[in-house]
Design a protein that fits this description.
mainly alpha; 6 helices; single chain
Length: 181
Amino acid sequence: MYFIIKSLHIIFVVSYFAGLFYIVRLLIYHTEALKGKEGTERAVLHRQYCFMEERLWNIITIPALVIVIITGIYLLWEMQWMFLFQGWMHIKLFGVGVLLLYHYWTWRTLKELQQGEVRYRSVSLRMTNEVATLLLFGIVFAVVLKDLFLRYWWATLLSFVAMGVLIMGVVKVVNRNKKQY
């Protein structure tokens, strides 16, 4: 049973991240539609993006998160909580905590856009979309590498900072010639 639950946990982590990645893409397009269009076209796009965002959030992202949390708790319980005393699990749970804050920020931004409020430029949203990518890398590396991840914490930290700078730089370069909203 343990391996079935572990498999479900991994499958729904993938589903959850797919939902997070795509919802922020929708927020980017929604922002561009609200800032760049006028009249009927803007109203039609706003309704369509609201519909798509609600479906994605409520049918894929939230249910996947709930299943991830339930299966994660089961996995910890099945292992009699022994992982909670290991350093790699501390890093994983810290990453999950930051991910939940990111989830809340995404939900709040989604609700603001659905009300027609635009707080962020699309380029800022594009860069913020990469936060989930960095968290995914950190969590997966902590789980797979376990103690090796902690033993070389300085190299790990340096590589994640470098990867973050590289990703943000690529986003900036790719979007430098686009009209900024």
